[in-house]
Amino acid sequence: xxxxxxxxxxxxFSHCDPAGQVYFPRFFDLLHDALEDWFNSGLHVRFADFLxxxxxxxxxxxxxxxxxxxxxxxxxxxxxxxxxRLGNSSIELDFNASIDGRACLKCxxxxxxxxxxxxxxxxxxxxxxxxxxxxxxxPGGSAGAADTPV
Amino acid sequence: xxxxxxxxxxxxFSHCDPAGQVYFPRFFDLLHDALEDWFNSGLHVRFADFLxxxxxxxxxxxxxxxxxxxxxxxxxxxxxxxxxRLGNSSIELDFNASIDGRACLKCxxxxxxxxxxxxxxxxxxxxxxxxxxxxxxxPGGSAGAADTPV
Amino acid sequence: xxxxxxxxxxxxFSHCDPAGQVYFPRFFDLLHDALEDWFNSGLHVRFADFLxxxxxxxxxxxxxxxxxxxxxxxxxxxxxxxxxRLGNSSIELDFNASIDGRACLKCxxxxxxxxxxxxxxxxxxxxxxxxxxxxxxxPGGSAGAADTPV
Amino acid sequence: xxxxxxxxxxxxFSHCDPAGQVYFPRFFDLLHDALEDWFNSGLHVRFADFLxxxxxxxxxxxxxxxxxxxxxxxxxxxxxxxxxRLGNSSIELDFNASIDGRACLKCxxxxxxxxxxxxxxxxxxxxxxxxxxxxxxxPGGSAGAADTPV
Lengths: 150, 150, 150, 150
Description:
- The structure is a homotetramer.
- By secondary structure, chain A is α+β, with helices and mostly antiparallel strands.
- Chain A contains 3 helices and 8 strands; from the N terminus they run βααβββββββα.
- Chain A has helices at residues 24-42, 47-52, 126-132, and strands at 5-10, 56-57, 60-67, 76-86, 90-99, 102-112, 114-115, 120-121.
- Chains A and D meet through α1 and α2 of A and α1 and α2 of D.
């Protein structure tokens, strides 16, 4: 309960701007990579199958991100993912990224489960929801029945 | 007073994901493009000179973005930029993007003025601040002297 | 006969690497933007409709690109497009990009027309082919009937 | 002699276009990632130090790439790197990328060693050259003394 999913990625040349630091939109690529790897390795649902076979997607509803310190070419970025709130179809994620223990960014990021066939938000599939529950429980998180859908 | 800076960009193939919609990190590229064009055409400060000659930058302190409806390949995205709050070195921008009048995203986005020589936040240069004042004044915005720096 | 399609794009912050120059993969984004704009404005075929309604695509078969001089943040890149060879389903494009008349890159770039339904290369639609013929004729180009398909 | 450097990367959502396949400019990002990892793990020269401390870079002189079959979201791309030709300051690399043994792309890619201080091509540092020699020797490759600089 309250599991944290951690991944580490090298900061690539392609992530960096003329100041030699990660250009902020590239951080969102890295957060999406972490989401993919969480599905693949944390939830044991192959993200490509989720999209291509189950015809579901995870569009971003909103993101609130604070950039706390820069990341530079050659750094290793550690990203921790937990769930703050598990709704009916929405999932509020908490990303904390750091470099050698120094906080780099903090992001509250809401996605929903979306059918690419009906083009509507749909409830989180039960088997997936059961696995996601393991990642709920960080301080301030909740998975109450009263959660409202997106 | 309360001027709005508007730019329009085509949604490119390169912005779109396997669902045929803008992959959300690419929206932040487009918001940064709008920031550049605001400097160039709205504030009449060449952004490349600002960075390369004045040795100043505009790192992102935080961004709060709600994605309201999808943008698809072939759409034209109109981005409106105003200032919500002008601090000592920080600037809180309000981006509203739409497609044919349909709201697409709303983003409260805070940057600061940063010296790439001292590697510290610095006050907004006075001449730049004077030009920025024109864009303050949307409902809820302020440019009061009591504003705290970043 | 032998028309040249020219577009100009600003070199954006997002295109540039820690050396302050365009990171070479971003040039290919810009060449693809030029291809899109050529369809839209040169061939008068809306590229988004071509993909989404006609269900055709233009995958890249190969690209041979020489980078002749750097492009920097704030530069304006002019891209000239002509056709070197018009095959049955393949099109060999010639891109020449320059900055204030200084050659920046030269790229021989081959695409083909591809059905995203049959997942096969298909002949260039006749109406499109007729319009493309205007852009054939640079030295070395050809549109002979003996051209082999991809 | 004739060593091959191999890396494998997952094809990410962010690499893929509306057809669900890797958008070709993203392949060049992946080739650059392979180049970085070759420096770091194959040549045992930390690429970030090479750039930031040694003030050297590896600009691309030219690239000849044939795209042989598509890569799709969820695939694992294996990239093999060898040296075709080791010049005075230039290095001609041979990239072969495949998915489960199916050839995906083949790229002859020329970089040079460049000083970001003098802004000129410089000879490959001797210690680096010695390590690079291990990767020369694929059919058609050479490292002869008569090689001309870029």
